Amino acid sequence: MRLGLTLRTLDGATTELSVIDGHFRPPGEPVDRELDTAGWWAVPGLADCHAHLGGGYADDHGDSDETLARTMANAWAQLQGGVFLVADKGGGDRVTLRVLDEPPTTRPELHMAGRFITNPGGYYAGFAREVDQDELLATVRDETGGGATWVKLVGDWPRKGQGALTNFTEEAMHQAVQVAHESGCRVAIHAAAPDTSSVAVAAGIDSIEHGLFITQDDLAALGARGGAWVPTLAAMEAVGNMLGLESTGGKLFGRGLDNVREILAEAPAAGVTVLAGTDLEVPHGAVAAEALKLADYGLAPADVVHAVTDGAYAYLGSDHSFSPGGHADVLFFDADPRTDLTILQRPVLGLRHGEVVVGSIGAD
Fold this sequence. Notes:
Layout: E1 3-8, E2 14-20, E3 23-25, E4 33-34, E5 41-43, E6 46-51, H1 64-80, E7 83-88, E8 109-112, E9 117-118, E10 129-130, H2 136-143, E11 150-154, E12 156-159, E13 163-166, H3 170-182, E14 186-191, H4 196-203, E15 207-210, H5 216-224, E16 228-230, H6 233-243, H7 248-263, E17 273-274, H8 287-296, H9 301-308, H10 310-315, E18 330-333, E19 349-352, E20 355-359
Parallel strand pairs: 1-4, 6-7, 7-8, 9-10, 11-14, 14-15, 15-16, 16-17
Antiparallel strand pairs: 1-2, 2-3, 5-18, 12-13, 18-19, 19-20
């Protein structure tokens, strides 16, 4: 179907475009239907920047056909929630990368990691690739293939009787970043223990995942090079509750979340790109719920909306302009979400490559 649209973006600009064969075209070309969208607000889509489309635990993996089917079902759930951009931060195998071969109208735009990398005993047994420091660089190089654009390191993990320990040295992380960058990939790191974020920032890691104990100095260094922080707050709260609020681990997570609450609002001014991620706690397609968590922890409403829309597109290098020739991806809200963040949970219409995947355009 050939459609005519009016798009009002968050900066207040208004553009008239046609949607023809999955692309935006200049206004004036013949269309089958003019949609009255002038009173709505348009964004390129929501963005989930810490997802695991294939599942996140060892028992989620095994048969490759089942893994791919689960990955596709979760990708479709993201689209139905208005999430048109996903950074999948890896999993227990590389089967999930096969989703990149599927038609774009059945999945979001994807920026993916393959299998997690850790050191011996540094994650759930048998789930990640467990390597010694002298094997790390070869493993990172191997994980940059197959369509991956991210490498995911597990930066820390609790050890019995020792607490949460950082898995890799700063120098090892730094060399891993260099190898990944040479292959055109970025590096994300699981960082929940007290020292890991600071070590990872010093090593040049691109994106800090969780970052419970990130410091103001870390924010300054990360922001100076245009790095990202994905706090995954709902997931971190869930882990703390699972451990028990009065347990040693629960208290550690509580202190970390208190730290996030104290400094999250400062991150954008420091140049850090704050992003929203569902991890394994928020359902696929419901990243708006994590956006509300960012607000609960002090991020300003405009920064929250930026984190889950334009900011994520800019950080991941995705074309998010509404201009002739571009893919017709657009998500509409009937009010400005910056005035009420819950509006992010209620898109009224979404097109992915010109196909309606959220809402309906009704009968002719």
